[in-house]
Amino acid sequence: QVQLVESGGGLVQPGGSLRLSCAASGSIFSGYTMGWYRQAPGKQRELLAVMSPGGNTNYADSVKGRFTISRDTTKRTMYLQMNSLKPEDTAVYYCNAQSFIVNYWGQGTQVTVSS
Predict the structure, then answer these.
(1) Contacts with 65 (C-beta within 8 Å, 6 or more apart), sequence order
(2) What is the per-residue pLDDT across 19-47, written as a single tens digit (0 to 9) for each?
């Protein structure tokens, strides 16, 4: 059983930065694709960033150049560094880990970008 727990959300001013963390527990393996998603009120969940088991990354156009996905395998934690935040980044952010046959989600953490 794998559990993912997000943390690091909160209120930040436009142009500011936050780093979200996703701590994994249980039997998590090296073959998972890791990702960050967000869901704003009234909108569908949006894929923001993914990292392959080999460490390759891809980003949604909306966050390219501003967000960075990373992981610390020793701490079993994935991160999303968010810079140059905009009000439209306001959403609940979720981490995800999946293989071809399994899929795990965190509970989400709220990010609010406002003056």
Answers:
(1) none
(2) 999 999 887 767 899 999 999 999 999 99
